[in-house]
Amino acid sequence: QFSAVWCGPCRRLDMDRIMSSTAKQITWLKCDVDMNPYTAGFCGIRSIPSFLAIQDKKIIGQAQLSDTDKVIAWANTLFAGNK
């Protein structure tokens, strides 16, 4: 998750629920764009909250979502075979 402490939509996301409702093989990492602007820029992140899905060292999906249920649905669709 690319986010920032000052971002209202980022704070509204329930990451505990997202992590418990998605495939167990998914590792969730958080990147604060203010503390790591290089990483966000390198990954092409232009708005927050943003999610980047990587599998086998390849980007397989990117989403700008601020709704917990939509993040869960997006992750479960991408990693449907990994539950």
Mind explaining what this structure looks like?
The protein has 83 residues and is of the alpha+beta class. The protein has helices at residues 8-12, 15-20, 37-42, 68-78; strands at residues 2-3, 31-32, 51-55, 58-63. Strand 3 (51-55) and strand 4 (58-63) form a beta hairpin. The longest helix has 11 residues, at 68-78. The mean pLDDT is 91.
Describe this structure in a few short sentences:
It is built from four helices and four strands, in the order E-H-H-E-H-E-E-H. The chain has 83 residues and is α+β, with helices and mostly antiparallel strands.
Secondary structure layout:
Layout: E1 2-3, H1 8-12, H2 15-20, E2 31-32, H3 37-42, E3 51-55, E4 58-63, H4 68-78
Parallel strand pairs: 1-2
Antiparallel strand pairs: 3-4
Q: How many β-strand stretches?
A: 4
Order of helices and strands: EHHEHEEH
Radius of gyration (Å): 12 Å
Cα distance spanning the termini: 20 Å
**Please, how many helices?**
4
Molecular shape: globular
**Largest sheet entry:** 2 strands, parallel
Report the uncertain regions: none
Key terms:
alpha+beta; 34% helix
